[in-house]
Amino acid sequence: MATRVGINGFGRIGRLVTRVALTYKDVEIVAVNDITDAPTLAHLFKYDSIHGIWKGTVQAQDSSIVVDGRTIIVPLAWFPRLWHGTPQERSHFEVFGGGAYLHWPDLDEDLTVAGLLAGRPSGETPRSLEKWLVSRKAKQRPPPDRRPQSNRALQAAKRRPRLNA
Ligand SMILES: NC(=O)c1ccc[n+]([C@@H]2O[C@H](COP(=O)([O-])OP(=O)(O)OC[C@H]3O[C@@H](n4cnc5c(N)ncnc54)[C@H](O)[C@@H]3O)[C@@H](O)[C@H]2O)c1
């Protein structure tokens, strides 16, 4: 039975290990996790300025990369709230049940390790995600600019006598 491997951080080392592992029949790279999407990871894997262009085929799908017919999943795409979260929001998580459940309070996202291993993506509907994205955008909007709008207004504000307390 092949040794199944997951790689966290698909940078120089992660990609090189994958290149080598793909030459072994008894090693299976099951999943790679990084902070970007499958098409970008596939591109970086194929075009490597140090190790050269991968001679086989590399295809990107929504949540996986297929190298020479071997599928490597990119699970980040399964959890859209994590995908849209900032690095700070993603790094703020809580672990429950002795490591069986993870919860991201800032993103209101949960996952179970069993679900992840079984390949179960988030059950959130596209409609619910859209609502969350809209409310998130509204919260992130910067407060209205209260500075004088024009240089003239600024000069006038400076000329205004100050009241001493
Ligand atoms: N390259 C070396 O010779 C070398 C030697 C000793 C130790 N290391 C260490 O090994 C690790 C990897 O090295 P590398 O050269 O591949 O680095 P790299 O910068 O090429 O790759 C790191 C990858 O991790 C990803 N990443 C960052 N934060 C992440 C997160 N929260 N979740 C998932 N992915 C994330 C980045 O996007 C990047 O693709 C580093 O910690 C490095 O310090 C590297």
Description:
The protein is an alpha+beta fold and 165 residues long. The chain has two domains: 73 residues, NAD(P)-binding Rossmann-like Domain (Rossmann fold, 3-Layer(aba) Sandwich); 61 residues, 2-Layer Sandwich (NE0471 N-terminal domain-like), CATH 3.30.2020. Helix content is 36%, strand content 24%. The strands form four sheets. The chain has a three-stranded antiparallel β-sheet with strand order 5-6-7, with helices on one face. Strands 8-9-10 form a three-stranded antiparallel β-sheet. The N and C termini lie far apart (81 Å). The structure holds nicotinamide-adenine-dinucleotide. Nicotinamide-adenine-dinucleotide binds next to helix 1.
What portion of the residues fall into strands of 2 or more residues? Answer: 15-25%
Succession of helices and strands: EHEHEEEEEHHEEEHHH
CATH topology-level fold name of the largest domain: Rossmann fold
Query: What's the name of the CATH homologous superfamily of the largest domain?
Result: NAD(P)-binding Rossmann-like Domain
Helix run count: 7
What is the CATH C level class of the largest domain, in words? Answer: Alpha Beta
How many domains, as an integer?
2
How big is the Rg?
24 Å
Ligand roster: nicotinamide-adenine-dinucleotide
Using DSSP, what is the number of strands?
A: 10
Query: Strand sequence of the main sheet, in spatial order?
Result: 5-6-7
What is the oligomeric state here? single chain
Average of per-residue pLDDT values: 89
